[in-house]
């Protein structure tokens, strides 16, 4: 089965959040993303990079902001497609579907940030479009959030709930070691 790796929003705005001390899940995510990239590249499999560009000039992901730059660990190699999105799903308003169809991709492995936003949205879209998504459980991360009710939710809890929601019905949720062994 032809498989593509989708590397989602591994950009400097998130490294800036980390540097500012934001509570985050999965500190090993970048190492696992690097391992997935190495394996896919070595096997000659498709790698697609998805980058977020905010439309508000004050957005840290705005294309003119330093936060829109890609983190070195996830820098695209020559020839690897880069899809730019302005919303949460990598499929909406982008060329991602065309890119995957042109490569006859049937399964996608998703990694990057954040677990409960853009990676989850892209995973759900992939499933809805008939792909077999594999959500790389330890190659994604998220941050703690406070809901509209004032209740704070720790990053690890958000990460765990996201995986539980996706597992089975929407995606296969697997650790990097299992993805690499497969």
Explain what the structure shows:
With 182 residues, this protein is an alpha/beta fold. The protein has one domain (3-181): Rossmann fold (3-Layer(aba) Sandwich). It is 34% helix and 23% strand. A six-stranded parallel sheet has the order 3-2-1-4-5-8, sandwiched between helices. Strand 6 (145-146) and strand 7 (152-153) form a beta hairpin. It is globular and about 45 Å long. The model has no long low-confidence stretch (mean pLDDT 97).
Secondary structure topology:
Elements: E1 3-8, H1 12-19, H2 29-42, E2 46-52, E3 82-85, H3 96-102, E4 107-113, H4 115-128, E5 132-141, E6 145-146, E7 152-153, H5 155-166, E8 172-174, H6 176-181
Parallel strand pairs: 1-2, 1-4, 2-3, 4-5, 5-8
Antiparallel strand pairs: 6-7
Concise summary:
By secondary structure, the chain is of the alpha/beta class.
Helix count from the secondary structure assignment: 6
Q: Tell me, briefly, the overall form.
A: globular
Q: What is the radius of gyration?
A: 15 Å
The helical percent reads 25-40%
**Order of strands across the widest beta sheet?**
3-2-1-4-5-8
Report the biggest beta sheet as strand number plus sense, adding barrel if it closes.
Answer: 6 strands, parallel
The CATH topology assignment is Rossmann fold
Name the features:
6-stranded parallel β-sheet, Rossmann fold, single chain, 182 residues, two-stranded antiparallel sheet, 23% strand, globular, 8 strands, alpha/beta
